[in-house]
Amino acid sequence: MKGARMSTPARRVRGLGAAHSGTGHFWHQRVTSVAGIPLTIALVVIVISLLGRNHAAVVQILGSPLVAILTLLFIINTAYHMWIGMQEIILDYVHEEKWKLVSLMANTFFVVVIAFASVYAVLKLSFGV
Amino acid sequence: MSELDAGTTAGRRAARPLSPHLQVYKPTLTMMMSIAHRITGAALYVGMLLLAWWLIAAASGPAAYANVEWFMSTLIGRLVLFGYTWALMHHMLGGIRHLIWDTLHGLQPTERELLAMATLIGSIALTLLLWVLGYLAMGGPR
Questions:
Q1: Is residue B110 part of a domain?
Q2: CATH number of the domain encompassing residue B66
Q3: What is the pLDDT of residues A104-119, one digit of tens each?
Q4: What CATH number does the domain containing A51 carry?
Q5: Please, which residues have CB within 8 angstroms of residue A127's CB and are 6 or more apart in sequence?
Q6: Which of B35, B48, B50 to mutate to test the interface with A (most CBs of A within 10 A)?
Q7: Domain count within chain B
Q8: Segments forming the whole domain that contains residue A30
Q9: Per-residue model confidence as pLDDT tens digits over B37-76
Q10: Domain count of chain A?
Q11: Measuring CA to CA, how many Å separate A41 from each of A36, A46, A82, B120?
């Protein structure tokens, strides 16, 4: 095997992967999935308890501290979880460098916009005006 | 230089055997549940638009909130919401299954099948349960 290199050159793996970051996302995906279980249950309970209520009641309940905090935690946790998840899907299926970068960027934009818009709405419900 | 050139012929990529894609395998339940986990995850990703719309509408005022309520009361809205509920339950149970596997438990063939079946049946049961609770909360179907 003259000339063949079985080891990967360190410069290619040091802190780099297909997404140009390390394995931290693997662990973060586990952390956010564990946190996501109680937060999802909380959100489902919140949504069901608000079904059929009029707007004024919905505003009052969504803006109350416990409900608002749980909803905010759900949004932030889910946003990070789905950002990592979609990145993983993109890296699996989009191989052309240009489209890979475009879709990775679009993923970030989508998640940031959704998260900020949702967080803003809950804060407005909590603090009014 | 040399390692970068390894595997190429005259600057072009040499034909190398590729690992076969999914369609060459006989479909199995665990495989289907794995695919379903990814598809439900992607669907929930898009579905976060619904949560954002609902929260922004509530924060915007009664008129905007009435729009969301109207859409959710249409047949399409109900179907989307039902699909969202199932996707959420399936992805959550599938995630719990993956967390169990992360601890190196439940990896035996019969255990894998059992967990995959539990994910599917559990997600359907939980979805139906939540919709019964939802309609009860609203005081019956409308």
A1: yes
A2: 1.20.1300.10
A3: 999 999 999 999 999 9
A4: 1.20.1300.10
A5: A63
A6: B48
A7: 1
A8: 24-127
A9: 999 999 999 999 999 999 999 999 999 999 999 999 999 9
A10: 1
A11: 8, 9, 17, 18
H or E element, residue A15: none
* Predicted-complex ipTM score: 0.84
Mean local confidence (pLDDT), B22-46: 91
Q: What angle do CA B9, A20, A10 make, to 5 degrees?
A: 65
- CB < 8 Å to B48, chain A: 78-79, 82, 114, 118
| In a domain? residue A3 | no
Cα distance from B82 to chain A (closest Cα, Å)?
13
As a whole number, the mean pLDDT across chain B is: 88
Contact B89, B130 (CB under 8 A): yes
Note whether residue B90 is domain-resident. Answer: yes
∠ CA(A123), CA(A126), CA(A127), 5° rounding? 85
B122 belongs to a structural domain: yes
- With an 8 Å Cβ cutoff, the interface of chain A facing chain B consists of 3-5, 9, 30, 33-34, 36-37, 40, 44, 48-49, 51-52, 55-56, 58-59, 62, 71, 75, 78-79, 82, 85-86, 89, 114, 117-118, 120-122, 124-125
